[in-house]
Amino acid sequence: MSRTSRLIISCIAVVVVFVVIWLLLLFMPKLNFGYRIRVVAGDGINRVSYDLAEHDIIYSRLVLRGTAVMLGIHDKLHIGNYSLPRTISSWQILQRLREGKPDTLSIRIAEGTTFKQMRALINQLPDINHDTADWSELKLMQAIDPRAPSLHAEGLFFPATYEVAADSSDLALYRQTYHTMQKHLQAVWENRQPHLPVKTPYQLLTLASIIEKETAHSDDRRNVASVFVNRLQQGMRLQTDPTVIYGMGEYYQGNIRKADLRRDTPYNTYTRAGLPPTPISLPSKAALEAAANPANTDYLYFVARNDGTGRSQFSHSLREHNRAVRTYILKKH
Question: Quick count: other Cβ atoms within 10 Å of Cβ 91?
């Protein structure tokens, strides 16, 4: 046998051994005590394979990733949660991912989101039934709760991360987020401070939605709440930009002009006294709690410090507030 023949046979043997090992690592079941793969938007097989290897669910990342590339599914994973049996092979995992039929789906509704943004997010969620996609807001609210405090949906849904069953109706998700908000709202209403200038849980929700849009800093929420409560108690207008922006709707292009502050809408708290007619966002639990239990202060004004901390500067008087504006907005010391 010539040297060339022996070399060819050796190469074939190496390839055969490689293929056999690859197939063993691909098809041999592995005990994992039960595991759930979580695929979020933007995930590819690289991230998923790393997670599986880190939790000792697969024998080889290389084999899983390489086979996924060969199958053409490495960058086409469907978001959701995939429950794995106690014993499963890498091949069977890839088949679950290839089918793209998760057991449950995760959706995160961020604090301060508007209902319009929330609905657009739900309408884009794959693998659920979009039964309400073409419903009016009125029809949707009547289906969720005919006795809702308002048939205007804004603010009535709780922002959080939810898991929903694949192939379930989007109406079930709306009902879950709605009833979660009602539960949290009722809890803070029952534990609110006495003598607040809000007469109903819905008004408290409206106040919380403004607080949510004004600050995301945990140390400032109750102070922001105190400013609005003090203003309401003294008959001062709230003069808060987020309500004006909400009232502008699609006309808002990223900045507010003086003309916008003068243009009267039901949500312009520069031209109208009291709270706006509805919430302006989906407030978090922290914002609800701040609205129900504001700090005990005499603050009437606040302005963003613009120093990278996300904090605000609070003032008791207009003169003090004007100095803060010169310092933090105009940068004049």
Answer: 17
Q: Which tens digits make up the pLDDT trace of 286-311?
A: 999 999 999 999 999 999 988 888 89
CA 128 to each of CA 118, 120, 163: distance values in angstroms, whole numbers, following the listed order: 15, 14, 11
Cβ neighbour number for residue 254 with a 10 Å cutoff: 5
Q: Are strands 35-39 and 80-84 parallel, antiparallel or unpaired?
A: antiparallel
Would you call 63 exposed, middle or buried from its count of C-beta atoms within 10 A (0-12, 13-18, 19+)? buried
d(C-alpha 119, C-alpha 86), whole Å = 37
| Paired tokens of 82 | 């995939």
Could you give the CA distance from residue 242 to residue 283 in angstroms, rounded to a whole number?
Answer: 13
Q: Count the helix, strand and coil residues of the chain and give each as a percent rounded to the nearest 5.
A: 45, 10, 45
Q: Which two tokens stand for residue 92?
A: 């069977």
Give pTM, 2 decimals: 0.77
Cα atoms in the 13 Å half-sphere on the side-chain side of 137: 13
